[in-house]
Amino acid sequence: MPGNKWLNLVAPELKTMTGGEVAPDSAAFTHLGERVRAALSERGFSTPTEPQRRAIPPLAAGENGLVIAPTGTGKTETAMLPVFDAVAKRRAQTPDEAGDPYPGFAALYITPLRALNRDMRERLEWWGEQLDVSVDVRHGDTTDYQRSKQAENPPDVLVTTPETLQAMFTGSKLRVGLESIDHVVIDEVHELAASKRGAQLSIALERLREVAGQFQRIGLSATVGDPEAIADFLTGGRECAIRSVDVGSRIELDVETPAVTPTDERLAGELMTNESVASHVRRIVELVEAHESTLIFVNTRQTAEALGSRFKTLGPDGDVRALDTDVTIGVHHGSLSKDARIDVEDRFKAGEIDALLCTSSMELGIDVGHVDHVVQYASPRQVSRLLQRVGRAGHRRDQVSSGTVITTRPDDTFEALAIARRAKAGEVEHHPIHEGSLDAVANQTVALAMGHEEIAVETAYGIVSRAYPFRGLSEAAFREVIEELAGNRVLWYDEGEDRIEKTGGTWQYVYANLSMIPDEETYEVHDVASGRQIGTLDERFVVNFATQGEVFIQRGEMWRITDIDDEESEVKVSPIEDPAGEVPSWIGQEIPVPRAVAGEVGEMRRVAEPQFAGGADAGRVASEFTRRYPADEHTARDALTQLERHVETEHPMPTDDRLVIEREGRTILVNAPFGHQTNETLGRVLSSLLGQQTGSSIALDVDPYRIELETPGRIDVTDVVEVLETTDPDHVEAIIELSLKRSDTLKFRLAQVAEQFGRIKRWQGDASVSSGRLLAALEDTPVYDEAVREVFHEDLDVDAAGDVLAAIQREELDAEIVGGRTPVGTGGRSSGTELLSPENADASVIDTVRERIQNDRVILLCLHCTEWKTEKPVRRVRDQPRCPECGSTRVAALNPWADEVVQAVRAAEKDEEQERQTERAFRAGSLVQTHGKQAVIALAARGVGPHNAARIINRLREDEDEFYRDILEQERQYARTQSFWD
Predict the structure, then answer these.
(1) ∠ at Cα 250 (246, 253), nearest 5°?
(2) Rounded distance between C-alpha atoms, residue 798 and residue 730, angstroms
(3) Which residue, 34, 433, 549, 624, is most buried by CB atoms nearer than 10 A?
(4) Across 381-390, 479-488, 586-595, 791-800, which has the greatest mean pLDDT?
(5) Gene3D superfamilies in the record, alphabetically (predicted)?
(6) Beta strand 241-244 with 522-527: parallel, antiparallel or unpaired?
(7) What is the model's pLDDT at position 114?
(8) CATH 3.40.50.300: does it fit domain 5-246?
C-alpha cells in the first residue's frame, strides 16, 4: 500500500518532503500569483494564519494535501487560494482562440452539510469576483432553473455535497462538465471518512478520475489521531502532504464542578430544579457574562432542550434576568427547523445573542462569527470532540482557544479530566475509516451501470477497489454483490460477456438512493395555535413514547401533544408554561467514550485507592490531582469523595486492572472501565451466554464504566465470573452474531441495508416487509453480511472485548465479587440521560403518566373458569376485579394486544412458549387478587411485567405520586433496554 509522506510539522522548523528548508513562514503568500496577493491585501490578510503558512506552498505546487486545523483558522482559504490561483493562471495563459481551458467545471468544493454552503458561497464568491473565477452552489434545494443553467454554462468552482455529486454523474451535460476538473476540495473529511457517506464518496472520486483523469485532492480536517489514514482515504493511498497544526498546545482548558452557593438554593426553586443543576446554570451564565461571544456545547438534543428550558424559565426570550443579568442564550440543534437554525445563527453572528446552546450541529464550520470562549456542559466523551469544539474559540491572529468543561458527577469529572489531559498532550483517539461497506459497493455498482450503460465487471471492480475503504474487497465478494443486485432487478448481469448493464429499474434505484444516510421517518412538530413548525421528532420517539397529553421540551420551550397524525407524519402541540415538563426521551447516537479514556479513569481510581486506604483525606489526594489535571481543588475533591466513600466500605476498587461485580435483587453490575464499545460487546456476550444457560432473556444496559444485567433470580454473580473466565476470546464474534438474530438492532439495520441493495424498493411503495420474514429471506446473502458488519463496526469492539477476556484468563485482570452495591457502582447514570427533570419536581409529568395509564385499555381474564374476558380502560376497572361468571378474584390484567396469552391460558395442550405465557398470566392474576386495582395500574404500564409490578407495589411510599413515579422510572428503564428483550 502506498504510504503518505507525513511531515512532523508541529515543530517551528518546517521541512519539505525531500528534507530541504522551506521559505520562511511569512513568505507563504509569495507562492500565489499577483492577483491573489492583491486581493489578500484588499481583504486585510497581511499575515497568513498557521495552517496557511504551512499548507499553501505544497498546495500551490499542485500536491495532494490534508490540512488539519481547528475551525476558524482559515482552512477554507488555505485550500481555495491555491485553487483559485491555479484556475486564474490557467485561464490567463490560454489565449481565447485556443479555446476555453475549462469548458466545464475547474474545481469542486465538497462539504458534508448543506448548511455550510450558505457560508462558503459568501466567502468564495468574493474571491471569485476578484479573480474573474465564477462560483456557484448546487445541492438538493437548488432550483431546476439554476441546475439547467449550471449544466449549460458550468461555473469554475462548484460548491456541492457528496450526494449531489452522485446525481451529477447521471446527467449527460454535467458528466461532460466534470471532464475538466483539476481540483477537488473535501471539507470536514474526517467526518466523512468514518461514515458510509464517505465510503460512497471515495468510490465516487475514483469514478470522477475515470471521467476527468488525475486531479488534485485537498482535504480539510479537524484534529484526528490517525492523519495518515485520513490522507489515504482522501487520495486512495496516493502521495499526500499532511499539514497539521498542533492544537493541544494552543488551548486553555478548565474542568469545573460548580460549588452550590446560597444563590443556587434560591434559584433551585425558581428553576423548578435541584440546587446542583441551578449551580450549573448560574456558572454557565457567569462564563457567558465574562466573554463577548460563547458557544455552549452539550452532547445530546435532549440535554440542549432541558438546559435551554432552564435558561428560558429565568425570563422571556432567553433573557436570564433572574440572575441580575441581561445575558441572552439561543438554542441550536438538528431537530429544529432550518429557518429556526438560520435565524439563531444570524442573530448570534450579529451580536444580538450572547451565547449559543448547541449540539454537534455547531461543531462543523458553520460561520457564526467570532467566538472567544467555549463551554462544554458535561464530559465531551472524546478528545477529538473537545479539541474540535474548544478549537472554535479565539482565532483572531492565532490566539489561544479557551474552554471550560462543566461537570455534573464524579464519573463525568474524572472522564473530563482524562480527556483534557490527553487533549493537551495531543493523545487524540483514532476514528476507524468505514471500510468494506457492501451496501456502498452495491450503491456505486448500480451507479456505474447507470453512468456507463454497460461496463465490464473487471473494470467496475477495478474502479471500486481503487477507493481506499475497499482496497481489501475481493473480486468474489464483488461478484456476490452483483448477483444480489441482478436478482433484485436493479441492474442486468450478462454472465456470458461478464458485464453489467442498466435496466428499466436502474435509474429509479439511483435517484432513490443518492444518499447513504438511512431514510428514517421524522415527524414535523406544529404549534396548533400559530400553525408554524417548531421542529421535528424522531419516529422511534413518537412510536414509543408520544401520546396525547404527553409533555416534552423543544427549542427550550414546553409543549403538550394534542394530536398525532401518522399519515401526514405530524405531531400537533400547544405551548404550556409549566417548567417541570417531561424532557423528550430520545437518546440519538450517543457519543461513545473510547477505551483509552475510560481506562485512564480506571487508572485514577487505582492511584487514589491506596492513598485513601492509608488515611489520606479527599483534600490531600485532590491536591495531587490538580498538579496533573486542569481542575481546581473543589472539583477534584468533589469527585474524589465518591472514591473515599468506596474505600471506607472496604470493598475492592474497580480499576483499569480489576473488575468488581456486585448485585442487588435481580440486577448484577459489572464495574468495568473499558469504554462504551468494549462494554457493549462484553455485555452482549454475558447476556447471550447467561440467557442460553437459563432459557430466559437478560436485559442489558451499559455505560463506559459499567455493564448492568437484569437477570432472573436463579443467575448468580458466580455465573457471570464463570462466563468471563471460560469464554474463548476467539469466539466473541460468533457468540454475538448468534444473539443478534433475535435483536431489534439487526432487524432495523437489515431493513436499511436491504433498501441499498434494492431488495426493498421504497420508491415503489415496498416498505411493509416484516422484519422476521426479511431476516429469514436474507440470511447467507451479502445483505445480511453487511447488516451484521455494520452492527459490529458502529456499536462493538470485538478485539478489545477478546483482550479483556484473555487478560482475565491469564490472571492479569482480576474479577472480584462483592456483596451489595458500592459507591462507585451506584455512581453511574443511565445511557444518554444527562439532564432530566429533577427528582420530585415533576408534578405535571406524574399527572400525565397517571392520566395516560388510567385511559389505557386492559384485558381482564378470569383464570379460574377462563371463560370470562373483557376489555376496558383502567379507570373503569373495579377496586377488586371479580369474574361475573364464577365469582373468582383470580383475574389477570393483560395488555390489549395480548390475545396470544389468552389463547395460551385456554389451550388444552401447551407448547413451551404457551406454558411460559400461562405462567406469566397466573403471576399477574395473583397480583390482582392480592392488590386489586393497584396491580392493574402497574401491569398496564409500558414494559412492566408481573415481577417488576410486584416490586413497585411492595415498596413503602408516602403518597400516590411516588407510586406513579416508580412506574415512570420502570418505563424509562424498559425503553432503554427494550432492544435486548425477545
Answers:
(1) 125
(2) 9
(3) 433
(4) 479-488
(5) P-loop containing nucleotide triphosphate hydrolases
(6) unpaired
(7) 63
(8) yes
